[in-house]
Amino acid sequence: MAQQDTGRATPGVQGERWFPDETPFAAELADLWGDWYCDSECGTLRSVLLHRPGHEVEGIGPENFAEYRFRAPFDAEAARAEQDALADLYRANGVEVHYVQGQRCDRPNAMYLRDLVLMTPEGAIVCRPAIPARRGEERAVAATLAQLGVPILKTVNADGYFEGACAMWLDRDTVVLGHGSRSNDAGCAQVERELRGIGVSTIIHTQIPYGSIHLDGFLNVVDRDTVIAFPWHLAYDCAKAMTDRGFRILEATDIDEVKGGMALNGVALAPGKVVMPAGNPNTRELLESAGVEVRELPMDHVMAGWGSIHCQTAFLRRDPITR
Question: Are the C-beta atoms of residues 127 and 90 closer than 8 Å to each other?
């Protein structure tokens, strides 16, 4: 019986005998690139990317904070301490913490990494921010991902713009994409093509309403079958699509906590275990009454830039989950 030619040179045999290896990319990813993976917002968290606030956030005071789209003057040292506490909590929970290298010194919003990276089961989508004050941050992020060995599947380009917090994984087959001021139709279409190319079968398109810029301002996943949402910003079609898939929706109705305290802007450390911004007792009670374990961290100074725990965290690896 003739042996199949593997493409390796055989002494004394002439001619073209090269055949492709048709092993899927995902099957080789861990060996060739590293153990990078994300198909949910709540699978056990293993690796994250952060940007520790640097020189770029110094000097944002009463006279110029609005120019940088901050909501208050920024205390750089206090914000660094808050993020350091978050990084320590991640490490204490077995999470590997990586940091962006070589970020520009004129981009004070660069600490909000979720906007710049959307992680998938096969690598990262590098996003393109919507506002000029943030464009260029993604270059340092892409370089850091490459240095770590994270595959880059796509860089949003052409006339598209899209920020990673405008996407939310529900499970391996299902992603919510939000269209709004930070993600136009062209950007969403580019992201959808990549997701479908790696096997995502269901894309739930929804509008991000005026008054929110990202999904994580009014929606988050806290367990395998549980989301928490600000009901007055959650579109009915999106809510129904989630409940049709077996999700229960916890309705966070304390407007001061959701909008002022960024109560929904937390991160699941594992299914049913979250870290959230401190100072939101009603939202914490809602989560705990649903069986979710809650950790709190103060984020008042980080939130001066209109972001909190989820905004700062780009997931690089989560364990796969089953529902």
Answer: no
Q: For position 9, what pLDDT does the model report? A: 57
Sign of torsion over alpha carbons 187, 188, 193, 194: positive
Segments forming the whole domain that contains residue 162: 34-318
Contact 171, 199 (CB under 8 A): no
Mean pLDDT of the chain: 95
Residues sharing a CB contact under 8 Å with residue 82, sequence separation 6 or more, in sequence order? 297, 298, 299, 300, 301, 302
Name the band, by pLDDT with cuts 50, 70 and 90, for residue 67: confident
Q: Name residue 295's beta-bridge partners.
A: 275
Q: What is the CATH number of the domain that holds 103?
A: 3.75.10.10
| Residue 1, domain member (yes or no) | no
Hey, which residues does 177 pair with through a beta bridge? 167, 205
Q: How many folded domains does the chain comprise?
A: 1
Q: Identify whether the C-beta of residue 86 lies closer than 8 Å to the C-beta of residue 309.
A: yes
* Residues composing the chain: 323
- Is 56 part of a structural domain of the chain? yes
Residues 136, 306: Cα–Cα separation, whole Å: 19
Q: Is residue 8 part of a domain?
A: no
Contacts of 131 (CB under 8 A, 6+ apart): 69, 182
Q: At 18, is the pLDDT very low, low, confident or very high (cuts 50, 70, 90)?
A: confident
**144, part of any domain:** yes
**C-alpha span between 81 and 251 (Å, rounded):** 31
